[in-house]
Amino acid sequence: MPAEPSHFPYHHAVLDYFRSHESVRWQAFHDGTEVSDRESRQLLQLRKSARRLELRDALPWLHEAVTTGVGADLGSPVVCYLATTAPRMQVRMIPLLDQPRLIIEGPLLETLSQDEVRSLVAVELARYQFWQQEGGDYLAVKQLLTELLDRQEVPASHEMTARRFALCTDLLSDQGSLREGNAETLVAAWIKCRPLPDSIDQSLDAAGLLEQAESLCETVDQVMTSQAQRDLLLRIAALQKIGKPGFDVTQLESQVVTAKGLDDLDLLQQLQVMNWTRKLICCLLEPSWIQTPTVISYARSYFADLRVDELSSGNEAEVEQLLAEIRQLSPALKEYFCFMLLDFSAADRELQEAPLALVIDWTERLGVTDVFRELAQRELRLRKTQFSKIFQERDQILKAAEGGGA
Prior knowledge:
Blueprint: H1 9-21, H2 23-29, H3 32-49, E1 51-52, H4 55-58, H5 60-67, E2 79-83, E3 90-93, E4 101-105, H6 108-111, H7 114-131, H8 137-151, H9 156-177, H10 183-193, H11 206-219, H12 227-241, H13 253-257, H14 267-284, H15 293-302, H16 316-327, H17 331-345, H18 354-366, H19 369-379, H20 384-392, H21 394-402
Parallel strand pairs: 2-4
Antiparallel strand pairs: 1-2, 3-4
Helix pairs in contact: 1-2, 5-7, 7-9, 7-10, 8-9, 9-12, 10-11, 11-12, 17-18, 17-19, 18-21
């Protein structure tokens, strides 16, 4: 049986992003004084909101759960806390690596069976084991994203990254928990701790949910369900597959990180779209006749550091790779590139029809001419016959532009 993955590729990609692209913020977050203050605040909040449990005598079955299996491999004993007045029932691991600390919130011990509590504990122990990787840097990513969102000082892409990073961690932790229990018990615990979407048959038990989760993920009402509920359905569907031959939980990464439009982009996707945009602009502006001061100035409204000597499409293999990557994007993201191309088609009116002819050539290569035609006719107020004429005569128009007759 193949070894379980230790992380999702997405985890490492986000970590690399912060190390490379937000290095100042990343280094400041690791400042010794900042780290000490952050840990002190978390411990103070924990002591205010929860009381420590002495498990060996009071809850021997829970003591066994945290001292055997994964709990025995964490490097130091697990300490448990109880916060009965918390608004929701859950078990969660406090994000501190000096010692594993579990907090049990709400009337969970009175509501769930011992096996159900064990299953939730197992998830959190597996989560802590993941946090210990990369010298604790995966945990640092989670903490940094949480802190930035709490301060409300970052764009939506950071929030999207935080959600996807957390969901990948959840899926990995769920898989790790099955070394200590079974999927049906874990799902039964989840059902008791959090409400299912109203659109799902409320009479379904854990076994029924496991059986139907994959189809529910595809058919659930996106408007009537929260993102958290949809994420839970994905986690349940994953549990049904874990352990089956050929299945690796990281295969679900594409479902977790798929972006439908610009508003769904996380930090990695935002960076990728920026790279594609820059490359496409460089390809588009390769002909010397289009490199007028007006067009160059407009290009620099996208990238202030854009240099004229960059304006080259490079080798054909690189161009084809760029085109292939853009072709596989969602309709909304393809429309973004159509709008970008449309802007360049009208950036310098003195060039007359030549930029539009050039842009149409690129939309043909991208396979988005039909979408572009609608945008151009609407935004540039072109009649269908005008667009068709430029489309049909674009080779002659471009030849004339290259000869200086644009």
